[in-house]
Structures are given as structure tokens and as C-alpha cells.
Specification:
Layout (H helix, E strand, L loop, with lengths): L4 H10 L5 E5 L6 H11 L4 E5 L18 H13 L2 E5 L3 H9 L4 E4 L1 H4 L2 H10 L6 E5 L6 H13 L5 E5 L16 H10 L5 E3 L1 H5 L5 H10 L4 E5 L17 H10 L10 H41 L7 H17 L4 H23 L2
Parallel strand pairs: 1-2, 1-8, 2-3, 3-4, 4-5, 5-6, 6-7, 7-8
Helix pairs in contact: 2-3, 6-7, 12-14, 13-14
The structure holds phosphoenolpyruvate and manganese (II) ion.
The site of phosphoenolpyruvate (PEP) has 9 residues, from helix 5.
């Protein structure tokens, strides 16, 4: 994946003092609505105007977008405001229409990224394009699917690729519409450090009051851009009404974000950082040692259970450990969510070690 430097160069060349901002309604509804919002965004940081034209809805019967009719409205919005345009494409026909109508940037939706057949079809339709293609994460928390989609576009000789992090669906209800699972996006960044990464806080949040915080977290994690749904009359939007914000609110939000530097070459800062990082390294080594020792004890328990023909999983004991650790974690200011994740992983590793012994 040697090409991922291309879009980064476009971003660097713009020399923005803020993250790349993509804003606009969830869906294009009417010509007036598209133009009104675009004009209201004109004096914001918005570089790219978004609007869904073909809407993938989870269940039938909801508003499915106005279709190709809106391509003219987008063209007009760009002509009148000078803001670039983007829309979601979900098949080769959408690609064809979007390209013919001068849409600048195409994005691949979360429900498309899950399907290698459709991703391949779209990548073929775009082969060799100079356009910017932004690939949303798949709906399910699966880094390989996200990477796979990105690879299919790179393999079609498409150079300007970026990723959009829009969160992942979970069966468990959380305060978010789609759980951010920041770690997955951080893993993607680690594997493709040159690939620009954009946060879509609107589809993560599902409600407008959570958007600011998500944006700030993204900037703290060095994201390159934000894609935020903005509507002139959010409460009456034809789709995603609860998560959209007015252009006015958007301007206020971006003004209040703290933009962090990628790094700082001040010597005192670097010394301090080195020192703190050395401390972190010591703790990380301790963690590995402690975990290794814990597993050795688990193996001894495995042997004991084997001799006495006792099952590996002891639910009562496991629940007791979890309950106790959540309380102790709380005293150290560690969230329940974190403790659950860590201890479930430790427990699974213990079971694996014990299983190996029982099966020997
Ligand atoms: C959207 O951006 O309006 C959209 C449908 O997004 P996603 O594919 O993330 O659900
Ligand atoms: Mn939406």
C-alpha cells in the first residue's frame, strides 16, 4: 500500500489551520434545503459539502434518498459557494452518475464496506480515478474488512484514499448509536500511518449532545478530519434528525475545539516526555511479568482440575473475581468498561492455558 501518501499531500498542501471539515445534511431533501445549508456553511471551516443522495436504510419503508435528481442541486451548491462536494456511492451506477455530475469526493458507506463483492464492483468502476475516495468502517467491529476494502481500492490503482471512522454496531445498548471502539481506528492508523483518518461523530453519537466530545477525542488522537451532519432544520430532517446540528451550532463547535500539534520540539517538553515514557515502559514490563506469572498459576490450577476431573470454567468464582475487580478498579479510577475488557481477556487467556493442559 505504497500510495497512501497521495491524499495526505493534498491535505498538507492546503495548509489548513484546522482539521479537514466535511459538513452537510444526512440527506439531500429539496433543492432549497441543499442550497440553504451550503450557503449557511460558506463562512464556516467547511471544505467539503456532504449530502446523501442514495440512502442505505437498515429497514425498508424509511426515506431512501431523492436519487440522482439531487446531483444537480449539489452541482449548483458547489457553483454558488465554491465548497467541494461529496456523496455516498453504493454501486457502479451511482459511481457513473456521481462522476458525470462532477461530485468531487465519493464515500463508501458502512453497509457497503462489509460486502467484498460490492466493494470490488465499486473499485472496478473507479479504476485509476484521481478522485478522493473515503472508506467508512464496516458496521461490525472488524478491522480486516475495513482494511480489505481499502486494499481493493488501492489495487484498482486509486491513489487518493482516506478512511472514515463512524463507529460499530453492538447488540449491547450503549449511550452511542454506534460504539466508537477507538482501538480499531488506532490499529488502522498504526498499520497505514499515511492514510488520512476522518471521524464521523454524527453516526457514532446518534444524538447531538455527544458530538463535541467525540470531535475533541479525535483531534487528541491526531485525526485529520471531521465529517459532521449539519441541517438547517435538524428536528425536521428526513433522516437522522436527532444527530444533526445547525450550521450555526457547527461553527460554534469547531471554534471551541482545541487543535493539538502533532509534536513539539521544545527541549523541556521532550525531556519530560522521555522521562514519563520510561516510566510507562517500566510499568508495561511489570504488567507482562505479572500476567506471565498469573498464567503459570492458572496452569497449576489446570493440572489440579485435570487430576480431579473438574471443569475448567467455574462461573461462580469468575463472577466473584469480576465483581471484586470492578470495585477495586473504581478505587483506582479505572472504569467498569475497562476492567471488564481486561479481565475478560485475562480470563480467556487463563482458560486457553488450562484447556491446553486438560487436552494433553
Ligand atoms: C451517512 O453518512 O449518512 C451514512 C448513511 O453513513 P453510514 O454509512 O456511516 O451509516
Ligand atoms: Mn446520516
Amino acid at each position: 500500500m505504497k500510495n497512501s501518501k497521495n491524499l495526505r499531500k493534498w491535505l498538507d498542501d492546503m495548509n489548513l489551520s484546522h482539521p479537514l471539515l466535511i459538513a452537510g445534511p444526512c440527506s439531500a431533501e429539496t433543492e432549497n434545503q441543499v442550497l440553504d445549508i451550503a450557503h449557511q456553511l460558506k463562512d464556516s471551516d467547511t471544505i467539503v459539502y456532504r449530502a446523501g443522495i442514495w440512502k442505505p436504510r437498515t429497514r425498508p419503508g424509511n426515506f431512501e434518498g431523492v436519487g440522482s435528481l439531487a446531483l444537480q442541486w449539489m452541482k449548483k451548491a458547489k457553483k454558488e459557494t465554491g465548497i467541494l462536494t461529496t456523496t455516498e456511492v453504493a454501486n457502479a451506477n451511482h459511481v457513473d452518475l456521481a462522476l458525470k455530475n462532477e461530485i468531487d469526493i465519493l464515500w463508501i458507506g458502512a453497509r457497503t464496506t462489509v460486502s467484498p463483492f460490492i466493494v470490488q464492483e465499486i473499485a472496478e468502476a473507479l479504476r485509476g480515478t484521481e478522485k478522493i475516495i473515503l472508506i467508512k468502517n464496516p458496521v461490525n467491529p472488524d478491522l480486516s474488512l475495513w482494511l480489505g476494502a481499502i486494499e481493493r481500492f488501492f489495487s484498482s490503482n486509486i491513489k487518493n484514499i482516506g478512511a472514515i471512522h463512524r463507529g460499530f454496531s453492538t447488540y449491547e445498548k450503549t449511550k452511542y448509536r454506534n460504539n466508537p471502539e477507538w482501538q480499531i481506528a488506532i490499529d488502522l492508523q498504526r498499520r497505514l500511518p499515511d492514510l488520512p483518518l476522518i471521524l464521523d461523530p454524527s453516526h457514532i453519537a446518534g444524538r447531538r449532545d455527544l458530538i463535541f466530545d467525540l470531535c475533541q477525542t479525535a483531534l487528541d488522537l491526531n485525526y485529520d478530519g471531521l465529517m459532521i451532519e449539519s441541517h438547517n432544520d435538524p428536528d425536521n430532517a428526513w433522516s437522522d434528525a436527532k444527530q444533526q446540528i445547525t450550521p450555526e451550532k457547527l461553527k460554534e463547535l469547531t471554534k471551541n475545539l482545541t487543535i493539538r500539534r502533532v509534536t513539539n520540539d521544545d527541549e523541556a517538553y521532550l525531556d519530560n516526555l522521555d522521562n514519563l515514557r520510561a516510566q510507562i515502559n517500566v510499568h508495561d514490563n511489570q504488567l507482562i511479568n505479572i500476567l506471565g506469572n498469573r498464567m503459570k498459576v492458572a496452569e497449576k490450577i489446570g493440572l489440579l482440575k485435570k487430576k480431579n476431573n473438574v471443569a475448567v470454567l467455574q462461573s461462580k468464582r469468575w463472577n466473584e473475581i469480576l465483581g471484586k475487580m470492578i470495585l477495586e478498579g473504581d478505587e483506582k479510577n479505572l472504569s467498569e468498561e475497562f476492567i471488564l475488557k481486561v479481565f475478560k481477556a485475562i480470563h480467556q487467556e487463563s482458560i486457553n492455558h488450562q484447556e491446553k493442559i486438560l487436552k494433553n
